[in-house]
Specification:
By secondary structure, this protein is an alpha+beta fold. The chain folds into 4 domains: about 130 residues, no CATH class; about 170 residues, no CATH class; about 70 residues, no CATH class; about 70 residues. It contains 23 helices and 14 strands. The strands form 6 sheets. A 4-stranded mixed β-sheet has the order 1-2-5-6, covered by helices on one side. It has a two-stranded antiparallel ribbon with strand order 3-4. Helix 14 runs antiparallel to helix 15, helix 14 packs across helix 16 and helix 19 runs antiparallel to helix 20. It is flat and about 100 Å long.
């Protein structure tokens, strides 16, 4: 088959040339279903086309056959074509070619070639007509032609048998998974949990008052109720009644606002007052919505409500938060089926500022735990750091008696503290200070401890960086990395019932600036030496060569796909070149600001462009 042959094979291959499988035009390949069956002990190839995906611009060209055992049955095959009467009427210029209708393979091949040219001429003629009459429609036509149908399907399998699950079974599993992810029940004392529910119920029953009544938790002296000029219900009614439009209005929200409904008016008053208060405080208005999706769900609802009340969120604001959490339900939809709505006991409505705040607040504990287990790297080291470390590898000098330490030190922390105190003294010369530092560092047994002591003399630690749900921590040594993996992360997981993914290619360790490359056994988990952060592939040398290689692969694949589609439709080279600038070049230039520092990037990009030419 030539590369420009605009058909794909579907189904099964027979033994004879005229009992071939189904050959379908590429434009409709995803709408054709092929399956086999047995009719009177004969194996038959069936196919069907989804008419809902058809449109007038596509020519339906199907070439095919059926096979039986043994040989072919032309009568049976002809009967299968009866189901295409609908398509023949809808697409009068369609072409159906049957191999058995031709005397030999050459005649069959000639007919297929003619059908290809006919399909190509339709596309090219339509493009040329639009180009001559309406240039704007030309761009829309090309965009529709090159746009691929995004059709995919998802199936779940049984863990034990490996069999595909039905839609109902898959829906049940997804529902169960959502509940397990959302109902984050952290360990809690039963008595404390009961007291928490009782307090929240009492606050709800009292309407979250701004003053501490008997039996309610204490509130601050200043609360959200300390706002002036709030609308009363009567003022709200007067304001709504005064609203008018110049013409008759049937708009739904306006009609709902004007409706004579007591509950609706009270809710409108609350929202109006809330909006005024937030606006006066210089904050953006943000109302929670019931849009619970994947988890950052670490907070119990009762805990959120009690904490908000104690912090001074009372009255209207507290009741709105309570209503939002109560209404925070979710349903699972799969293949046209929808599960019943269910409510989760923890978590917050997603894609809103409150949920992000709670997640970020919980994530900051990870930063504290990491700093406790292994201090982050300090980039600003003393000017003598490199000279001191180089000298330690050559000799261990004796310091004068006046600066000799009174006892031996055994830990990097003690050595760093002693050096810091000596550096602050006014009567020590630079040469004596240097000898003192060498003397202290020599008391440490290993080079790793000496490096750690010098690291502690630095300043400006940046600490862990957070990228949504990823953490990046610059550390001074392999020992610090091991402490984070073996101590800090397990402690955080146990405390917050979280889970870090230590699967293959999920944990990266980038030895920077010539640092030694550790093994997987040293670190304690599978590691890789490249990592994609916010869509950019980062390597340990910051060369960005992996990113460049990825961009070249994507550019080559996109260009090849565009060339094949253009040749299938018979579009000329100038059209292909113009579409390269629209559909391929922007993808490559997306990372151009990073690729300028990648060695050899310009030459390799020029070579890629030469391949296209």
């Amino acid at each position: 088959m030539p590369e420009s042959f605009p058909f794909v094979w579907l189904g099964y291959v027979g033994d004879r040339w005229d009992t071939v499988e189904l050959l379908v035009h590429c434009d409709i390949a995803e709408q054709v279903t092929v399956f086999d069956d047995f009719i009177d002990d004969e194996r038959v190839l069936w196919f069907s086309v989804d008419a809902s995906e058809m449109h007038e611009r596509a020519r339906l060209v199907i070439v095919g056959g059926m096979y039986a055992a043994p040989g072919g049955d032309e009568k049976t095959w002809t009967s299968l074509l009866e189901q295409f009467q609908f398509y023949s009427a809808k697409f009068p210029d369609a072409c159906v070619l049957i191999a058995a209708d031709f005397p030999d393979y050459d005649a069959f091949k000639t007919a297929v070639t003619q059908a290809c040219w006919t399909a190509q001429s339709v596309t090219v003629n339509q493009f040329m007509k639009l180009r001559a009459t309406d240039r704007s429609e030309t761009d829309a036509f090309l965009a529709a032609f090159f746009r691929k149908a995004k059709i995919c399907s998802i199936a779940l399998t049984d863990e034990d048998t490996g069999q595909l699950l039905s839609t109902q079974q898959a829906l049940g599993l997804m529902l169960k998974d959502f509940k397990l992810k959302g109902n984050n029940t952290l360990p809690q004392d039963p008595a404390a949990a009961t007291m928490l529910r009782t307090q929240v119920a009492a606050i709800r029953a009292a309407g979250a008052p701004s003053t501490s009544n008997q039996g309610l938790p204490a509130v601050p002296a200043t609360t959200t109720a300390d706002n002036v000029c709030l609308y009363s219900l009567s003022e709200t009614n007067d304001l709504i009644d005064s609203l008018a439009v110049k013409r008759q209005c049937l708009h739904g929200p306006y009609a709902a606002l004007k409706a004579e409904n007591a509950s609706g008016r009270r809710l409108t008053m609350m929202l109006m007052n809330l909006g005024r208060v937030v606006d006066e405080e210089g904050l953006p208005t943000c109302l929670l919505q019931a849009d619970l999706q994947w988890a950052f769900d670490v907070a119990n609802h009762d805990s959120i409500l009690l904490a908000a009340y104690i912090a001074g969120v009372v009255g209207v604001e507290w009741r709105l938060l309570d209503d939002c959490l109560v209404m925070d339900t979710v349903a699972v939809q799969l293949a046209g089926l929808v599960s019943g709505a269910f409510r989760l006991t923890s978590g917050t409505a997603q894609r809103r500022k409150l949920s992000l705040h709670i997640f970020s607040a919980a994530f900051t504990f990870l930063q504290d735990i990491m700093q406790l287990c292994a201090p982050a790297a300090r980039p600003v080291l003393p000017d003598f750091a490199k000279d001191i470390m180089d000298s330690l590898l050559q000799f261990a000098p004796q310091a004068p008696v006046s600066v000799r330490p009174s006892d031996a030190f055994s830990t990097p922390q003690k050595v760093a503290l002693a050096i810091t105190q000596k550096m602050q003294a006014q009567d020590v010369s630079p040469s004596d200070l240097r000898l003192f530092i060498l003397q202290q560092l020599v008391t440490l047994r290993t080079v790793q401890d000496r490096l750690c002591a010098v690291e502690l003399l630095g300043s400006g630690p940046v600490g862990p960086w957070f990228f949504v749900d990823d953490v990046v921590n610059p550390l001074p040594s392999i020992a610090a990395v091991v402490s984070i993996v073996s101590e800090a992360i397990p402690l955080y997981e146990k405390t917050f019932k979280a889970k870090f993914n230590f699967a293959v290619n999920k944990t990266a360790l980038l030895p920077m600036m010539g640092a030694p490359i550790p093994s997987q056994d040293e670190v304690g988990c599978p590691i890789c030496y490249q990592y994609k952060q916010l869509g950019v592939q980062i390597d340990s040398q910051l060369s960005l060569l992996p990113r460049l290689q990825h961009v070249l692969r994507v550019g080559r694949a996109l260009a090849l796909e565009l060339f094949n589609m253009s040749e299938t439709a018979g579009l000329t080279v100038p059209i292909q070149a113009a579409q390269i600038l629209v559909r391929v070049a922007p993808v490559i230039l997306f990372a151009a600001e990073l690729l300028v520092i990648a060695h050899g990037a310009e030459a390799r990009l020029n070579a890629l462009q030469a391949e296209w030419a």
